[in-house]
Structures are given as C-alpha cells and as structure tokens.
From TrEMBL:
Residues 1-29 are annotated as: Disordered. PANTHER family: ATP SYNTHASE GAMMA CHAIN, ATP SYNTHASE SUBUNIT GAMMA, MITOCHONDRIAL. It is found in: Membrane; Mitochondrion inner membrane. Belongs to the ATPase gamma chain family. Keywords: ATP synthesis, CF(1), Hydrogen ion transport, Ion transport, Membrane, Mitochondrion, Mitochondrion inner membrane, Transit peptide, Transport. It is a peripheral membrane protein. GO terms for biological process: ATP biosynthetic process; proton transmembrane transport. Mitochondrial membrane ATP synthase (F(1)F(0) ATP synthase or Complex V) produces ATP from ADP in the presence of a proton gradient across the membrane which is generated by electron transport complexes of the respiratory chain. F-type ATPases consist of two structural domains, F(1) - containing the extramembraneous catalytic core, and F(0) - containing the membrane proton channel, linked together by a central stalk and a peripheral stalk. During catalysis, ATP synthesis in the catalytic domain of F(1) is coupled via a rotary mechanism of the central stalk subunits to proton translocation. This is ATP synthase subunit gamma, mitochondrial.
Length: 380
C-alpha cells in the first residue's frame, strides 16, 4: 500500500513539474522542439527536470529562440558575445564536466603515475651499477692529462666535435646541454678563421635528432644504440678505431656531461690531439710531462705518440660514455620523481572536483524527491 502511494506521489509530482515547465516555456517563447533539445542535453529526463535545471536552461532560451527565428547581424553579435560561435548550439550543462569524464581522467593520471614511479626505480637501480664503474674509469684517463696536457684552445685546422648524448628521452636537459655546447664550439671554430674546419661526430639518438635540424651538412658520422648493452672498454675502443679511420682531424673535442650527484651534472669538454699535432707540440715544448721522458727501444717517437693518441682517445671516450650515462640516470630519476609528484597533485584536484560534482548531483536528486512530495501534498 505504501509503495503505491509513493509511486502515485512521484507521478503526480512529475505531472505538476511538467505542467510548470510547459508554462515557463510559453512565457519565454520557446517552442517544443527547443525545449526538447534542452531536455535531451540535460542529465535528467524531460519529465523530471528540476527547477534549477530549467532555470539554467532559461539562460539559453532567449538566445536559442532568436537563433532559430532570425539570422540578423544583431543576433549573430549576441551569440558571439556569449562565446557561442555562429551556427552552433552549445549543449546544455557544458560548463560542468561529466563524472564519467573525471573518472576516466583520474584513471589515466594513476596509470601515468605508476609508470613514472617504475621508471624512477629502474633508473635508481641502473645508477648504482654505473656509478661504481664511472668512479673507477676516472683513474684511467687522468694520467694522460698530466702526461700530454689539456689544451682546449689548441690552434688546429681540422676539428672534430664528438657530441655524446642518450638514446632515450625523459631525462631532463642533458641532451640539450651537450648540443648547445657543441654548437658553441662550432661557432667559435668558424669565427677563428676561414681556413678552420669543424664537423660533428654524434653518439646517441637524441643528439643526432637535434643536430640534424640545422647542422645536417656538418655531421660526418653518427653512432646510435650504444646503451643496449652495458658500456665497457671494448665498445670505447671500437668507437675510437672507427673515428680515427673514417675521420681526418687535428684535434677532437669530446662534449659530455660529467656526473656530480643525482641532481647535478657538469657539461665538460675534453680535448684529444692527433699524433701529428702531438709531435708538433712536443717539438715546441707545449705538452705536459712528456718532454721529461726519454724514449727507448726500437719504436720511434712518432710511433709512441701514435699509440698514446689512440689509447688516450679510447680511455677518455670510455670515461665520457660512463659519465654521460650516470648523468642520464640521475636526471631521469629527478624527472620521474617530479612527474610522480605532479600526478599526485593533479589527482587531489580531480578527486576534489569529482566529489563536488557527485555531491551536487545527489543534492539535486534529493531536492526533486522533496519537491515531488510537496507538490503531492499541495494538490491534495
């Protein structure tokens, strides 16, 4: 018996609301087709449209009526002032995002947050392994600096700029930093004289992609996918042999990022001279401690300098690859940590928006039920 009364109360309330809605449409001068369009775009059915929803629709009613019955300039201007383009009808409730859209957005943000956290853990695991190898490799090339010296401003006609970058992204600005320093060295070489030449040797996919945009003609050689396997001295020796066989040079500038900590790295330029430049510098006394040594054995001074130059290039290249890899992992850790924090902030905002929208929907439904019961009591 009570369920029949409740059903009768709701149906009576719906009839009263429908009659009131029809009267308001007549007062506003809106035809049934426009009212039906408004109700179709509402969340609620047309028969149970609440008073607040109808008042919201009334704000668009006059504009819709003028649009459907007139095409004058004044009508078009009124539509443009309200932010609705000509020959378009804005759906009712366009200001409020659907709960389903917000839920889908929250799901996407959670998925991205899981990915960024996983990438941060992977980068931290790889960093621990590469960092120990990097620290050990520093003792391999440092004796060459004392023996042969370090002269980044050497006067050489043919210079090779070896830009070391990563094959993958999402690691901050380490690749952009290496490319910027390489371009600066290229400009300095071009400004030093018309007889000076410089070209690029690019290691890494990201550095290649950036330099190809405006310096494609200056790239002599590029090597990618060097990080698929762990970096070792054999890889550095193979790269050094390929560079010395395919490229003629008087001096090589290695541009890489030296690892300092997880959150910082230092752009560094290391200079390696060719055997001919070493011989000329040795005669002029411009090298380091090499002039204080005597050469013994069957090998000539030129052969010794040739071997020293090749071994120095392989050693410095090995250390540069490890330093850059360490810097890449540290920068990726920082970038993924920032991404995870941003995802958390976005989730908080989306959750707040979703709860507010859901609370408003529940409140609207309660108002409709109460209004139906009040209408039934008034009619009886």
């Amino acid at each position: 018996m009570s369920s029949r009364r409740s059903a009768h109360a709701l149906s009576s309330g719906a009839q009263v609301a429908t009659e009131e809605n029809r009267r308001s449409d007549q007062r506003l001068g809106v035809g049934p087709e426009v009212a039906g369009h408004l109700c179709e775009n509402c969340i609620l059915p047309s028969g149970m449209a609440s008073g607040s929803a109808r008042r919201g629709g009334a704000r668009l009613a006059n504009l819709l009526h003028g649009y459907l019955n007139s095409s004058s300039t004044a009508t078009s201007a009124s539509w443009s002032q309200t932010g609705i383009a000509a020959r378009e009808i804005a759906p009712f409730g366009a200001r409020m995002a659907s709960n389903q859209i917000v839920r889908n957005r929250m799901k996407s943000v959670r998925s991205i947050q899981k990915i960024t956290k996983a990438m941060k853990m992977v980068a931290a695991s790889k960093l621990r392994g590469v960092q120990s190898k990097t620290e050990d490799s520093r003792g391999l090339w440092q004796p060459f600096t004392a023996l042969l010296g370090d002269s980044p401003g050497v006067d050489a006609k043919k210079k090779i700029i070896v830009t070391i970058s990563s094959d993958k992204g999402l690691c901050g600005g380490i690749n952009s930093t290496s490319v910027k320093f390489s371009k600066a060295l290229m400009r300095l070489t071009a400004a030093s004289g018309p007889d000076k030449q410089a070209s690029y040797v690019v290691i890494g996919e990201k550095g290649k992609a950036q330099l190809q945009r405006d310096s494609k003609k200056n790239i002599r050689m590029f090597v990618t996918e060097t990080q698929k396997l762990p970096i070792n001295f054999s890889l550095a020796c193979a790269l050094a042999d390929e560079i010395m066989q395919k490229v003629e040079f008087d001096a090589i500038h290695l541009v890489y990022n030296k690892f300092q900590s997880v959150v910082s790295f230092l752009p560094t330029v290391a200079t390696i001279l060719s055997p001919e430049t070493l011989a000329a510098g040795s005669e002029e006394g411009k090298l380091g401690e090499l002039d204080s040594y005597e050469f013994e054995g069957s090998e000539t001074r030129a052969a010794v300098l040739q071997n020293l130059s090749e071994f120095q290039l392989a050693s410095v290249l090995y250390n540069a690859l490890l330093e850059n890899s360490c810097s890449e992992m540290g920068a990726r850790m920082s970038a993924m940590d920032n991404s995870a924090k941003n995802a958390s902030d976005m989730l908080e905002k989306l959750t707040l928006s979703y709860n507010r929208s859901r609370q408003a929907q529940i409140t609207t439904e309660l108002i409709e039920i109460i209004s139906g019961a009040a209408a039934l009591e008034a009619s009886s």
